[in-house]
Amino acid sequence: MATKIIDEYAEMMKAYEQSGGNVGEFSNPNVPSIVISGNKVLGKNEVKGLIIEPTPTKDGVDVKITVKKGTKILYPMALCFGVLPKEGVQVINMEAYIEDEAGMNAVSHCVFPNAEHIVHKMNYKVHLGNHSFFRYKEIHFHGDKGGVEVVPYTEGEVGENSYFESTFTLKEGRVGKLDIKYDVDVKKGGKLELYSKVWAKGNDEVNIEEKGNLKGEEAKALIKSRVVLQDNSHSKVLSVVNAYAPYSRGHVDCMEVVQDDSVAEAVPVVGVSNSLAKVTHEAAIGSLDSKEIETLEARGLTEEEAIKAVVSGLLK
Amino acid sequence: MEEILKVTDLYLKKGNKEIIKNFNITVERGSISVVLGVNGAGKSSLAYVLMGLSGYKPDNGKIFFKGIDITDKTVTERAKLGMTLAWQTPASFEGLTVRDYIQIGMKNKSIALVKEALEKVALDPILYLNRTVDKSLSGGERKRIELAAVYAMHPELVILDEPDSGIDILSLEKIKKLIVDFKETGSTVLLITHRDEVAEIADTAFLMCSGEIIKQGSPAEISNFFKDECNHCDHKGAPEKIIQENVK
């Protein structure tokens, strides 16, 4: 049994490294971390002022993370979630409480290296107190078979003069089916930034629904999406910013690059219900700019290398 | 001297319009050759045809680079042979840093050379190396980075399409110095411009009008003719008239 756990941990670390993570983080006592494979917690490290409370369930793990009032966590927390078999379901219910005047950065790598039919659901609830911050990055590493269904839902509230940034990245391997939803309220002076960067291939399906609600005076939101599609992939991006309070400001910036027989749809929705608020948007769907490609070809790159360089930049 | 570029009987038509016609030039290795012409003379189209960009395949004629017929070669093949182009209005690249952009075309990825190239175009490497080559740069900054990128490539032939446009007057001398540096580091330069004061650094000059080379000579001779005749030209579209009048 112990050998199996050690092998599983080693395989998770291998996939973590392939997705761009630094495995040394998990042996550094100063770096808070958690490793979850399926519904097993394989490792956990807390640091002063940070409490991690995992509870295994039938299909996954419920995790409560609390950053105590006034604590700023020095090193970004490393999270590694994944499913190693070809088939399976993983449901992570995560609640993050960043108390007043507290702050943390976190990088989560979700790895499904052998996926043929995997469902990964991440239900995230984020509560930021006042004068606090939370930067969360979620990086996915999938195999090239595309049999993954990824469903990350994030609900949250950003307290007064607090900052929440969330970045979702999936550019290695096949997407499979991706269904992202954000719904975040922002209080007075708070700031919300949501970034989604996805490279869809084969018959991948991408659905992104991001919503920022500016409920407090001078609240701000930026919602930025970059989706690159090729082959027969499909995407739909719905970005919504509603400004309810005076001097609140929002901006939606969506770009989808369509190649081959892929299909993209972008729906920016901006609503203002206070005459002193302002929300702007920009959306672009189209092929890669031939001038960008030819510029790189004139530096000696092949067309394939040039496309990769341009796409990598867009998804950086 | 050795010919590095030879263009014979080049002809390009877009729709019903003749963009380049009866075009013949020879560029010698190690030289700076300038193609001078007013806006709309077909100078940028010439640069695109020479580099092989999409939509600019010549209807007739041949292009030889180092004696190799490159008329049907791709942009990448031409670049790998040793030629490149600095665009008049360079493209923007979201997420690509100045350092990465310059290094793309370099054989060795020496950071010292990247810094040197930026300094050549009067940009402080400390301030620019990690900036992205996107729309946050001004047109002038982007243009200088383009020149730095082609400088760091050390190409055998560089086509500079209006490197002086969008550059403030104080920086113009630096750009001229950079063009001379291209030559001194072993590159041959085909300089395309509508500013006669830039032409003075060239070894040979060609005057282009309505898609044709109508005059070839020393930079001083061509610049004087350009100043006197072309800046207030009433012969647009009829270079044969100029030739006839010039012959008279």
Describe the structure.
Chain A is mainly beta. Chain A contains three helices and 19 strands. Chain A has helices at residues 2-18, 290-297, 303-314, and strands at residues 33-37, 40-45, 50-56, 60-67, 77-82, 87-98, 103-112, 117-128, 133-142, 148-158, 163-172, 177-186, 191-200, 205-214, 220-229, 234-243, 249-258, 263-272, 278-286. In chain A, the strands form two sheets. Chain A has a ten-stranded mixed β-sheet with strand order 2-1-5-7-9-11-13-15-17-19. A nine-stranded mixed β-sheet of chain A has the order 3-4-6-8-10-12-14-16-18, with no helix packed on it. In chain A, a hairpin with a 2-residue loop joins strand 1 (33-37) and strand 2. In chain A, helix 2 crosses helix 3. Chain B is globular and about 45 Å long. With 248 residues, chain B is of the alpha/beta class. The model of chain B has no long low-confidence stretch (mean pLDDT 90). In chain B, strand 9 (204-209) and strand 10 (212-217) form a beta hairpin. The longest helix of chain B has 16 residues, at 169-184. In chain B, strands 6-7-8-3-9-10 form a six-stranded mixed β-sheet, sandwiched between helices. In chain B, helix 3 (98-104) packs parallel to helix 6 and helix 4 (111-120) packs across helix 6. Chain B contains ten helices and ten strands. Chain B has a domain at 88-154.
